[in-house]
């Protein structure tokens, strides 16, 4: 199935989802190592079998990652490589999702109650707003399809809503500093000492950027404990 999709001149949102599931074997939300190499190999084979040249985007992608052991891409990067339907692709190209700071501001707009989640209806409105900002409109059926696919792509714990760290996968990998905290579970004293714990891991050259991005979650300059817990995946947030 993935082969036929990779041979398409235009990949639908549902086909993109099937391609992603095929290659993201461990369900991590990222393609790296063997997964990434499998994608490159199968992409080249599928296009060759169909008598098609690699598009400029595909060629650039292959050149960048074919001979690297440390390559890692997310859904955003793949959406830019494959010929995905325009409106769905726009969700990954939106200006609000090009930096962690803008992403945090967008999150705050929809998580106004500091619950730490964006639920289905809120996600639908979020996607609708992104498309309207790009001067695109879709009917309710297509919007519902996009919402459902976004949940399937990003809702890693299958609870029907998205946490900050799940939704942050809409960011390009190199823009997503939240990956520094991936898989972290803290509570009590560990949580209170979070910044001490991560001071050695974070790139000191980027500390001002990290701080600015985190403070984009604040409410009038005030950062709630629950906001910080969203980033650090605290068990008691």
TrEMBL record:
Residues 11-46, 98-133, 142-177 form the EF-hand domain. SMART domains: EFh (SM00054). Belongs to the calbindin family. GO terms for biological process: regulation of long-term synaptic potentiation; regulation of presynaptic cytosolic calcium ion concentration. Keywords: Acetylation, Calcium, Metal-binding, Repeat, Vitamin D. Interacts with RANBP9. The keyword Hydrolase does not apply. Pfam families: EF-hand_5 (PF13202), EF-hand_7 (PF13499). Signal peptide: none annotated. PROSITE patterns: EF_HAND_1 (PS00018), EF_HAND_2 (PS50222). Buffers cytosolic calcium. May stimulate a membrane Ca(2+)-ATPase and a 3',5'-cyclic nucleotide phosphodiesterase. Gene3D superfamilies: EF-hand. It comes from the Eukaryota. GO terms for cellular component: cytosol; dendritic spine; nucleus; terminal bouton. It comes from Phyllostomus discolor. The keyword Calcium applies. GO terms for molecular function: calcium ion binding; vitamin D binding. This is Calbindin.
């Amino acid at each position: 199935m993935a082969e036929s999709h990779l041979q398409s001149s235009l990949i639908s949102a549902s086909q993109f989802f099937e391609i992603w599931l095929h290659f993201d074997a461990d369900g991590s939300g990222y393609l790296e190592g063997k997964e990434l190499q499998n994608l490159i190999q199968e992409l080249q084979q599928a296009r060759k079998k169909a008598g098609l040249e690699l598009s400029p985007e595909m060629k650039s992608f292959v050149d960048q990652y074919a001979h690297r052991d440390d390559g890692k891409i997310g859904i955003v990067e793949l959406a830019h490589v494959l010929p995905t339907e325009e409106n769905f692709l726009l969700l990954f190209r939106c200006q609000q999702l090009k930096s962690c700071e803008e992403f945090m501001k967008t999150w705050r707009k929809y998580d106004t109650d500091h619950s730490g989640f964006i639920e289905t209806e809120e996600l639908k409105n979020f996607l609708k707003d992104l498309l309207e900002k790009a001067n695109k409109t879709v009917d309710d059926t297509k919007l519902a399809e996009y919402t459902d696919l976004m949940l399937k792509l990003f809702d890693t714990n299958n609870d029907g809503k998205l946490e900050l760290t799940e939704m942050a996968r809409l960011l390009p990998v190199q823009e997503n500093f939240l990956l520094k905290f991936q898989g972290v579970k803290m509570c009590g004293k560990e949580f209170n000492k979070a910044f001490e714990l991560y001071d050695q891991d974070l790139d000191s050259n980027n500390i001002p950027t990290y701080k600015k991005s985190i403070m984009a979650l604040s409410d009038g300059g005030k950062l709630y404990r629950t906001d910080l817990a969203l980033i650090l995946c605290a068990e008691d947030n």
